[in-house]
Amino acid sequence: MSWRIVVIDSKAKLTYKNDYLVVRNDNIRRIHLSEINTVIVNSTAVVITSYLINELIKRKIKIIFCDETRSPAGEIMPYYGCHNSSKRINEQLYWDKEFAVDVWTRIIKEKIHNQSIILKHYGEKNADKLDVYIEELQRNDETNREGHAAKVYFDTLFGMSFKRDDGSDLNAALNYGYTVLLSQFNRDIVAYGYLTQLGIKHRNEFNPYNLSSDLMEPFRPLIDKIVRDNIDEGFDGAMKIKLIDVLNQQVVINRSKQYVSNAIAIYVKSVFQAIKKHNLNELKFIEYEL
């Protein structure tokens, strides 16, 4: 599996030659496409050839373009992620909705569990409250244990004055990191032939990434930890690089150590297998080793 995250942070020309991405600025650098998972164009002074874009698309390599503030503005994904995408999409349209809800509920349980692990890592006693919420979680989260857990979690992690919807550097960093994760989920969902627009719990008609938003939940605490560990730093270029590098961290999934980028692919495939086979035991979640 490919693993390298390539960030183009200054004026450059990107071209293709003999299976290599060629970066031309003051120097010439070459990176074999087989190593690349994602290319992030983090400067508006970058020129990229259409030939290279087509080669990246063929290999299902995600391309993310950032705006003048170096925030993600858009991405390029192939129209068809696999040879039988029409079959996969038809399956998705007729998923057993009741069982899909069971899968989503299990995903949210794992999210709260991972939030609890993060709090325990920092020695926070409120982790016990999240463990209680896990026990109280009902199918489809009818009593909103996810929301209650989030309130306790963020208040504990970043302080009682922190508000998830304000314009602070903390929120900017969280949102940037979540966007990096979301982009990776978009890539893998499309690669397996499914539509990101058709979610399980997320059904917003204005959200083109409903399914990605459903599936990414257990991975969010990876970003939360990076932001907490760098809580005194501003939201600048250095911070963005740390957040992008989350995809190069290693985690354990299905009893093997994997880069986060590869772990997401394994996890996403397991979700589709679980829904297809009506078997929650098919789900493969990452293990947090802190």
Automatic annotation (TrEMBL):
Give start-end of the signal peptide.
Answer: none
Name the Gene3D superfamilies on file: CRISPR-associated endonuclease Cas1, C-terminal domain, CRISPR-associated endonuclease Cas1, N-terminal domain
Q: HAMAP family from the entry? A: Cas1
A GO molecular function assigned to this protein is: hydrolase activity
Q: Which family does it belong to?
A: Belongs to the CRISPR-associated endonuclease Cas1 family.
Q: Which InterPro entries match?
A: Cas1, CRISPR-assoc_Cas1, CRISPR-assoc_Cas1_C, CRISPR-assoc_Cas1_N, CRISPR-assoc_Cas1_NMENI
Q: What processes does the entry annotate via GO biological process terms? A: defense response to virus; maintenance of CRISPR repeat elements
According to its UniProt record, the EC number is 3.1.-.-
- Tell me the superkingdom of the source: Bacteria
Class of the enzyme per the UniProt entry, highest EC level: hydrolase
Encoding gene (name): cas1
Identify the keywords attached in UniProt to this record, alphabetized: Antiviral defense, DNA-binding, Endonuclease, Hydrolase, Magnesium, Manganese, Metal-binding, Nuclease
Function recorded in the entry: CRISPR (clustered regularly interspaced short palindromic repeat), is an adaptive immune system that provides protection against mobile genetic elements (viruses, transposable elements and conjugative plasmids). CRISPR clusters contain spacers, sequences complementary to antecedent mobile elements, and target invading nucleic acids. CRISPR clusters are transcribed and processed into CRISPR RNA (crRNA). Acts as a dsDNA endonuclease. Involved in the integration of spacer DNA into the CRISPR cassette.
What is its quaternary makeup? Answer: Homodimer, forms a heterotetramer with a Cas2 homodimer.
Residues recorded as binding Mn(2+), renumbered to this chain, are E146, H202, E217
What name does UniProt use for this protein? CRISPR-associated endonuclease Cas1
Cofactor(s) for this UniProt protein: Mg(2+); Mn(2+)
